[in-house]
């Protein structure tokens, strides 16, 4: 029987490699290993590298400086150049004031050196007040719309001939009562009885705004402005958006707060104009008031009642004292959940056609406001005149339906303001 192979035959022994270092002699002390930090410190420093290449004989060409106009961040990324302002023409603008009422727009134009050539309104009493303050202008009593457009255009072409068309400034302020939330509140008690009538008024009011915008497109004035109420249903804003998309080089708009332009009241309004005008109204700091103007800043202290601490909105809105609280969003403003009243060191409420009320510290009624209060709150100058015998209610109604001259001064200046 054959013998089994041993392990040495199957797995032969491989030769061992020589040791890397000689073994330490018996009894000799082992040298401690140096730390990495010490070894690095003991290593000799490398000699500095010598520059072996020669300096290039050519020099790069200087990069030309960009001469493009300054743009905002968004427009710069989008590659869009902001609209450029237009300088005021020699002699100022020739202003056509449609739906002029008592003349808030005309007051601003006159104070800035422009010439009011035409005022048009359907109300004879308000038009007479406009004529009293602007006797050199021509006045037409018309219900503006498609039926009277031919007569209006004939007068505009006569007063502003073709060689002066570069000076034409057309302003339109279509009646805003149908769009106003104040109108809705005033008729809330009997809303069911007159719902159909008020709905038709809203349709008619929006049709007037549409006609005014179509007139702007037809005339293509050098400058134009529009003032309207930002209705709760956004009908006016939606209509303006349609015209802005159809005529981007002519129509632009923005909802602005009058308090930002020196008007001492919370009065949001839709302002329309050419793109350069609206661009300046949005961004130019020089057009804005440095701080909000308060009631005490404009109303003479002698005309404020002694016990008055707050100024409240129209008199038919009664304060619910038990629900009174501060508005956290608006400092100096208080509310009961429905109406508002304001501290006198803050901007006041929006001025309407009815009287406002002075309230004492306990929110009790003191008295109603006079004509001087409405004149100052709407920023009308002291030289503005009324016919002798004009009633207080007529003055309140006239001021409440007007455009604040301080707001319109900013609009006029915006057309020639660079951002």
Characterize the largest beta sheet: strand count, sense, and whether it forms a barrel: 7 strands, mixed
Strand content: 5-15%
Strands side by side in the biggest sheet: 3-2-1-4-5-7-6
Shape: globular
Q: What is the H/E order? A: HHHEHEHEHEHHEHEEHHEEEEEEHHH
Count of beta strands: 13
Q: Give unreliable regions as ranges.
A: 49-53, 65-73, 177-187, 194-201
Q: Please give the radius of gyration in angstroms.
A: 39 Å
Q: What is the overall number of helices?
A: 14
Which bin fits the share of residues in helices? 25-40%
Instruction: Give the N-terminus to C-terminus distance in angstroms.
Output: 113 Å
Mind explaining what this structure looks like?
Strand 1 (94-98), helix 4 (104-111) and strand 2 form a beta-alpha-beta unit. With 419 residues, this protein is an alpha/beta fold. Helix 4 (104-111) crosses helix 14, helix 8 (191-219) packs parallel to helix 9 and helix 10 crosses helix 14. Strands 3-2-1-4-5-7-6 form a seven-stranded mixed β-sheet, sandwiched between helices. The chain is globular. The protein starts with 6 loop residues before the first helix and ends in a 5-residue tail after the last helix. It has helices at residues 7-10, 36-42, 73-78, 104-111, 124-133, 149-159, 181-186, 191-219, 235-246, 275-283, 295-298, 371-377, 392-400, 405-414, and strands at 94-98, 115-121, 138-141, 168-172, 223-228, 252-257, 268-273, 310-314, 325-326, 333-335, 340-343, 356-359, 365-368.
């Amino acid at each position: 029987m054959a013998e089994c192979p041993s392990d040495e035959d199957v797995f032969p022994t491989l030769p061992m490699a020589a040791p890397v270092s000689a073994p330490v002699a018996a009894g000799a002390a082992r040298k401690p290993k140096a730390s990495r930090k010490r070894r690095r410190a003991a290593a000799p420093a490398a000699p500095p590298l010598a520059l072996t290449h020669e300096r290039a004989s050519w020099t790069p060409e200087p990069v030309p400086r960009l001469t493009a106009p300054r743009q905002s961040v968004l427009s710069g990324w989008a590659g869009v150049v902001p609209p450029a302002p237009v300088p005021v023409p020699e002699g100022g603008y020739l202003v056509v004031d449609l739906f002029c009422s008592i003349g808030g727009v005309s007051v601003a134009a006159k104070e800035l050196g422009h010439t009011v050539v035409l005022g048009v309104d359907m109300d004879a009493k308000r038009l007479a007040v406009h004529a009293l303050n602007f006797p050199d202008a021509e006045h037409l009593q018309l219900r503006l719309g498609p039926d009277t457009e031919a007569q209006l255009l004939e007068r505009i072409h006569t007063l502003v001939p073709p060689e002066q068309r570069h000076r034409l400034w057309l302003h339109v302020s279509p009646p805003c009562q149908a769009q106003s939330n104040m109108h809705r509140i005033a008729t809330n008690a009997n809303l069911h009885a007159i719902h159909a009538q008020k709905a038709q008024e809203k349709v008619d009011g929006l049709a007037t705004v549409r006609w005014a915008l179509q007139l702007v497109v037809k005339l293509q004035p050098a400058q134009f402005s529009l003032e309207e109420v930002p209705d709760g249903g956004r009908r006016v804003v939606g209509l303006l958006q349609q015209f802005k998309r159809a005529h981007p080089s002519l129509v632009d708009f923005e909802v602005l707060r009058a308090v930002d332009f020196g008007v001492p009241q919370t009065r949001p309004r839709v302002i329309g104009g050419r793109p350069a005008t609206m661009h300046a109204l949005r961004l130019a700091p020089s057009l804005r008031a440095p701080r909000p103007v308060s009631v005490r800043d404009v109303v003479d202290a002698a005309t404020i009642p002694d016990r008055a601490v707050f100024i409240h909105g129209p008199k038919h809105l009664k304060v619910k004292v038990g629900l009174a609280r501060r508005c956290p969003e608006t400092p100096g403003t208080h509310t009961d959940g429905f109406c508002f009243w304001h501290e006198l060191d803050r901007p006041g409420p929006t001025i309407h056609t009815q009287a406002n009320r002075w309230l004492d510290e306990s929110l009790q009624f003191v008295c109603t406001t006079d004509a001087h209060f409405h004149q100052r709150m709407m920023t009308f100058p002291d030289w503005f005149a009324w016919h002798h015998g004009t009633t207080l209610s007529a003055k309140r109604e006239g001021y409440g339906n007007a455009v604040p001259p301080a707001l319109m001064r900013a609009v006029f200046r915006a057309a020639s303001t660079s951002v």
